[in-house]
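Thread: sanity check for a docking pose with pyridoxal-5'-phosphate

Original post by kr_44:
Hi all, I'm comparing my docking run against an independent structure prediction. Below are the sequence and the ligand SMILES. Could someone generate the full complex and paste the structure tokens? I mainly care about where the ligand ends up relative to the chain.
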Amino acid sequence: MSAPEEHYSEALAAAVRHTRQWLESQDQRRVGPRLSAADLAADFGGPLPPDGIPATEVVDYLATAAEPGLMAMPSGRFFGWVIGGTLPAALAADWLVSAWDQNTGLRFASPATAALEEAAGRWVLDLLGLPQEADVGFTTGATMANFTGLAAARWRLMTDAGWDLDADGLTGGPRIHCFVGRERHDTIDLGLRYLGLGRPTVVPADREGRMDAAELDRALDLARTGTGGLPSGGSGHPPLLVCLQAGNLHSGAFDPFREAIAVARSHGAWVHVDGAFGLWAAAVPELAALTGGMEDADSWGTDAHKTLNVPYDCGIAVVRDATALRAAMGLHASYLIQDADGPADPFETVPELSRRARGVPVWAALRSLGRDGVTEQVRQLVRHARTLAEHLAELDGVEVLNEVSYTQVSLAFGDDATTRAVTARIIADGRVWMSGSRWHGRDILRISVSNWSTDDADTAVAVEAVRDALAAVRAQ
Ligand SMILES: *Cc1c(COP(=O)(O)O)cnc(C)c1O
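Reply from moderator J.T.:
Ran it for you. Here is the predicted complex with pyridoxal-5'-phosphate included:
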């Protein structure tokens, strides 16, 4: 048998070659894909052939055939959804993670990746001003980070209500009443659904999508006194769970944490914060007004693959009550050799047992940027969003619909038909990519600045692309 290294070297060299071509193309290529998934089906589908082919051929075919169906998401001219690019150190670290092939469930089995993730977790807590005693878990994304925080909340609330959730499940137990802002991200509802917590009570929000703390107080009051017609648990008042948001998809707005958390506390509720991209505002001193008080919540979910710019898939769950988190996520099988008194084993803080060392690219991203570099990266995203909003607002026929306090800009161009036509033109043009959406009952064009590599030239191109698309639609 030849040395294992020989089996890898050619395939890896091919992957490096194709990776370079892909990254180098980002500067020039049209942002959108040229082919659809249906167009590509024939290239990848059909019956699996009986015979294999060499790894290098697989890599060459894959890269060549996939290329026309790839969206230039790593490009500084991609402004769709809330996506983010990949920092060089994070991409390279992600490759190492794959090569190391460490099953990062147990500290004992993979000490290096466990220690790296612990260090990365501490850095994140420190950067974002979150409690140092909190447990941190590296999930696939913010959906699962939120799910993880909400699972810990469920365990704590049921336990405090005198209900043995692990033994008896939810059936017959007290109902947890959940409260969300009108403009929470839909994945919060999804997490509640996964957990069997049902549909939440929706609390009104202001124009920017910020939850109204006085309305939250009223809603919690109704649930607690039972006058809202909601069934309450055996303990007299029902367990309460409040989900707040750092970073609204359309406006970038933040819920009023100080007021809302004080209200939630006065009713004995658990507070979870969905900060998929907004949590990172806490790394920027000038944005303190947005995030102030957020550190008083019980759990937080964020993404590393958005604002921090590590490769997919990587989210971060932070839970102050480590006992609740480990009880909700851990398992205690005899074959898992655990250190009973030490820090959590990685599997105790996330839904999975076996997984890749997702926190290592986070460590690499943070180490390459340094503290000031993280602050500067987030600051730049906000600066570009504001510049875009300013220049776009100067164009005749463009309405900027939100206060641009963070990385999101929402636009309309008069009526819905015009807005949709301009959005379609921009995407067809290909210089930039931005998402169409609906907000406040209107079609809108949404811009998210989430890529570390977006620069002044990219935002200038974006303004030109919007201007040209609007002119073309008007000339029709
Ligand atoms: C993106 C996003 C999510 C979901 O995160 P995933 O990483 O896609 O799972 C949740 N909440 C908000 C506010 C988001 O922007």
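Residues 82, 141-143, 185, 187, 247, 249, 274, 276-277, 303, 315 surround pyridoxal-5'-phosphate (CB under 6 Å). Hope that helps with the comparison, let us know if your pose agrees.
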